[in-house]
């Protein structure tokens, strides 16, 4: 469970990138975080994961405060950043084994092999990440985030660069994870994905959370006959 | 064509040089950083001016002041040559911006010309201290006419062209072959080493011919002789010197002509070679299908794996290895070579050193000198000062994994601590072969240096955290356009003070007292810096996101 309470963040004086954000992502739920470019999605995700500090408010992950109890909080989420260009000089297997050491993962061999086979990169694990395409790097980072089986998945644009099969598999895994009573929080620009997968969505624009609820609730509230795309445009353009 | 080259040059210079410095600063303390930069440049200019003033005055007493012109031209050509060994590889081949430039409709020579012009801009930067100021002092002292100053500006603009272009050409030839290898990273590093050896060979040959004792009895003739012996390798040196000494328009025109010819040759050659090398550099090639096995999953401590990761990321990336580690590795070789070229050569140096160590019965002087040398040798290891910046986008990784930030900073410092020992180790081996060093003072110097190295690494990473350059457009900027390096150098010089004071004021005291005082100072500083990292890690992490 992720609780965001009255969180604000400014990069420059007088202009809030995230403004008094209140949001709760419940256990057993896939939550899609939507918004135009520069709306505050990545800033919010960076505050949830402890990369950025909020100017105001607090963020709890399974009850642990990311600022006051950072080690406890960081152990219970898996994070996929918006760029998969991480430690490109390392081989994929070196990166994953490093992750295993950080999270003290038991039975690491089976877990790595299982996920690597699922994402179809098992055969190339012995290669440096710099030789991989964007999508393959993304797969390695996703595997690294899931290895310690965290309760909370926090994914920033996770589908970017993935091939159709891997994208499908990841979506399946997200559903299974939520069905086990755990949390999935992800940002996306692909409205069809949000529409099909998310139990609830949040739409943010210019740092303000404009809507939280199910896709059906959004349709009822904003554009009864339209697609999520129309709803999204109506909400963000009128912000 | 010319318009496109100029446009690209403008963008590259802005990216590599101007932006790199204008983004510097510690938030609200940006003004103090700018003041510090002005102080640094003023300080270096003052040193260059004072050195020139003293040297020219001395030379004027012997009516040999024109030798100073040869010396300045020689220094600027040598500086252009050595700087370009490292920078040409990094700017032409290992730079991240190649990925953006290659798909654009540029001819190979247009990209190379743009990048060579950037390298020239770097040379002009160092010419401000090594060329402009000394020659202005020369003009002032010799009451030169306005024509001299016009020639001076033209010569300074033209003189770096040949060394910069030649080194870039050698680099292009080497890189067009090394990228054919499967282990590109390793071969690229070896390629840079090879070019370095070639450039050192040229310099050695040149100065060996000038160290003939019959030819060079005095320092003045040595300078002039060294410069003249370089004429065969760099004819521009001759014409530059003659243009300034005799205010010869013919020499100036020949200097321009040779530089233009070399530049044109570079354009022709780069059209054939550059894409071959740089495309090989960017293509991924086929994947190794070597299966993972049990040993790939061995569990080790987080600390060990973290340090190992740091080493791998540092050494496997040629742009980082050649900039952060390699200079310190070649320093012992250059030092040994330089000393061997001094008056009397290496045998005289050995005799002098042996006499000093035999007179220094207590070992205090030996201890202080060795410690000073060790601290000086660590000047060229830029591992800790760039540890966070080198990570680039990966730096945020430190913020979301469940390892305390201060612990990660300590792990990141370990390679720097260990690598500062490599050049010292090399020098100690060379010295131990030549001179019988007393065991106790040597051992104490190594121990105190180890404590210094720990503190230096902590200092470096603190500075890097306060002013990280992880949002770079080219990896090259992490070292070359990083003003933080200056803080690292200042730290080394300040920490040399206890050893210098020991040498001047404490040489009558027993060795143990001198060692204890040094131990106290270095331990207190190193522990203080560790304490700062431990207590202020939250603040240190603020600029990494």
Contiguous runs where pLDDT drops below 50 for at least 5 residues of chain A: none
- Work out the largest interface and the residue count of each chain: A-B, 41 and 39 residues
Give the proportion of residues in helices of chain A.
25-40%
By CATH, the superfamily of chain A comes out as P-loop containing nucleotide triphosphate hydrolases
Oligomer status:
heterodimer
Quick rundown:
The complex is a heterodimer of chains A (239) and B (545). Chain A is α/β, with parallel strands linked by helices and 239 residues long. Chain A has nine helices and ten strands.
Topology summary:
The complex is a heterodimer of chains A (239) and B (545).
Chain A: E1 2-12, E2 15-25, E3 29-34, H1 41-48, E4 56-61, E5 64-65, H2 70-75, E6 77-80, H3 92-102, H4 108-118, H5 134-146, E7 152-156, H6 164-179, E8 183-187, H7 191-197, E9 200-205, E10 208-213, H8 215-222, H9 228-237
Parallel strand pairs in A: 3-8, 3-9, 6-7, 7-8
Antiparallel strand pairs in A: 1-2, 1-4, 4-5, 9-10
Chain B: H1 2-22, H2 30-61, H3 66-92, H4 98-101, H5 108-141, H6 146-158, H7 161-178, H8 184-210, H9 219-229, H10 235-246, H11 249-282, H12 302-315, H13 318-340, H14 345-359, H15 364-377, H16 397-400, H17 405-419, H18 421-434, H19 439-466, H20 477-480, H21 484-495, H22 497-505, H23 511-535, H24 537-540
Helix pairs in contact in B: 1-5, 2-5, 3-5, 3-7, 3-8, 3-9, 3-10, 5-6, 5-7, 5-11, 6-11, 7-8, 7-11, 8-9, 8-13, 10-11, 12-17, 13-18, 15-19, 15-22, 17-19, 17-23, 19-21, 19-23
């Amino acid at each position: 469970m992720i609780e965001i309470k009255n969180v604000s963040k400014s990069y420059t004086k007088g202009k809030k990138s995230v403004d008094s954000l209140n949001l709760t992502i419940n256990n057993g739920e896939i939550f899609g975080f939507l918004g135009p470019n520069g709306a505050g999605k990545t800033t919010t995700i960076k505050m949830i994961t402890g990369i950025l500090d909020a100017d105001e408010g607090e963020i709890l992950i399974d009850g642990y405060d990311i600022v006051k109890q950072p080690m406890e909080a960081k152990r219970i989420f898996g994070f996929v950043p918006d760029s998969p260009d991480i430690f490109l000089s390392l081989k994929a297997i070196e990166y994953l084994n490093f992750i295993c050491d950080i999270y003290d993962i038991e039975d690491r061999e089976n877990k790595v092999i299982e996920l690597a086979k699922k994402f179809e990169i098992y055969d190339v694990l012995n290669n440096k990440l710099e030789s991989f395409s964007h999508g393959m790097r993304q797969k390695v980072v996703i595997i690294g985030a899931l290895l310690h089986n965290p309760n909370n998945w926090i994914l920033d644009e996770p589908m970017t660069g993935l091939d159709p099969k891997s994208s499908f598999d990841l979506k399946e895994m997200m559903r299974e994870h939520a069905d086990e009573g755990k949390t999935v929080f992800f940002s996306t620009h692909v409205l069809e994905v949000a529409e099909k997968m998310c139990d609830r969505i949040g739409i943010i624009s210019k740092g303000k959370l404009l809507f939280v609820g199910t896709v059906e609730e959004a349709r009822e509230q904003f554009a009864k006959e339209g697609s999520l795309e129309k709803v999204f445009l109506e909400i963000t353009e009128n912000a | 064509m010319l318009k496109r080259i100029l446009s690209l040059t403008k963008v590259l210079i802005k990216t590599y040089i101007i932006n790199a410095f204008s983004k510097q600063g510690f938030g609200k303390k940006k003004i103090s950083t700018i003041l510090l930069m002005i102080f640094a440049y003023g300080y270096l200019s003052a040193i260059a001016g004072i050195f020139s003033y003293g040297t020219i005055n001395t030379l004027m007493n012997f009516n040999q002041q024109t030798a100073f012109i040869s010396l300045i031209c020689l220094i600027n050509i040598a500086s252009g040559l050595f700087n370009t060994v490292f920078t040409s590889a990094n700017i032409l081949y290992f730079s991240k911006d190649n990925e953006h430039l290659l798909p654009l409709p540029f001819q190979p020579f247009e990209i190379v010309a743009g990048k060579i012009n950037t390298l020239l801009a770097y040379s002009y930067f160092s010419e401000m201290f090594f060329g402009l100021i000394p020659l202005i002092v020369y003009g002032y002292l010799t009451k030169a006419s306005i024509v001299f100053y016009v020639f001076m500006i033209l010569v300074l603009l033209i003189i770096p062209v040949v060394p910069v272009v030649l080194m870039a050409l050698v680099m292009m030839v080497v890189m067009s072959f090394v990228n054919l290898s499967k282990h590109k990273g390793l071969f690229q590093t070896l390629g840079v080493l090879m070019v370095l050896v070639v450039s050192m060979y040229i310099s050695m040959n040149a100065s060996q011919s000038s160290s003939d004792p019959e030819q060079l009895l005095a320092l003045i003739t040595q300078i002039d002789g060294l410069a003249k012996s370089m004429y065969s390798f760099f004819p521009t040196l001759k014409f530059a010197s003659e243009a300034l000494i005799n205010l010869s328009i013919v020499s100036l025109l020949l200097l321009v002509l040779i530089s233009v010819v070399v530049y044109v040759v570079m354009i022709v050659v780069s059209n054939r070679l550059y894409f071959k090398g740089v495309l090989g550099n960017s293509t991924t090639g086929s994947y190794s299908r070597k299966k993972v096995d049990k040993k790939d999953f061995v569990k080790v401590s987080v600390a060990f794996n973290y340090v190992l990761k740091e080493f791998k990321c540092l050494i496997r990336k040629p742009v980082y290895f050649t900039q952060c580690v390699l200079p310190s590795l070649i320093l012992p070789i250059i030092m040994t070579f330089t000393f061997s070229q001094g008056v009397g050569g290496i045998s005289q140096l050995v005799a002098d050193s042996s006499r000093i160590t035999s007179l220094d019965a207590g070992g205090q002087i030996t201890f202080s000198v060795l410690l000073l040398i060790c601290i000086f040798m660590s000047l060229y290891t830029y591992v800790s000062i760039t540890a966070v910046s080198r990570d680039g986008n990966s730096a945020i990784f430190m913020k979301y994994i469940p390892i305390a930030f201060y612990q990660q900073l300590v792990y990141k410092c370990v390679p720097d601590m260990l690598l500062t020992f490599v050049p010292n180790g090399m020098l100690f081996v060379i010295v131990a072969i030549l001179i019988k060093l007393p065991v106790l003072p040597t051992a104490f110097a190594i121990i105190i240096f180890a404590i210094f190295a720990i503190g230096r690494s902590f200092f470096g990473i603190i500075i890097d955290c306060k002013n990280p350059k992880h949002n770079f457009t080219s990896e090259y900027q992490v070292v070359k356009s990083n003003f933080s390096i200056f803080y690292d150098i200042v730290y080394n010089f300040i920490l040399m003070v206890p050893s210098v004071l020991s040498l001047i004021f404490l040489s009558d005291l027993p060795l143990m007292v001198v060692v204890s005082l040094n131990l106290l100072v270095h331990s207190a500083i190193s522990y203080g810096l560790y304490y700062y990292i431990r207590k202020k890690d939250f603040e240190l992490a603020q600029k990494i996101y």
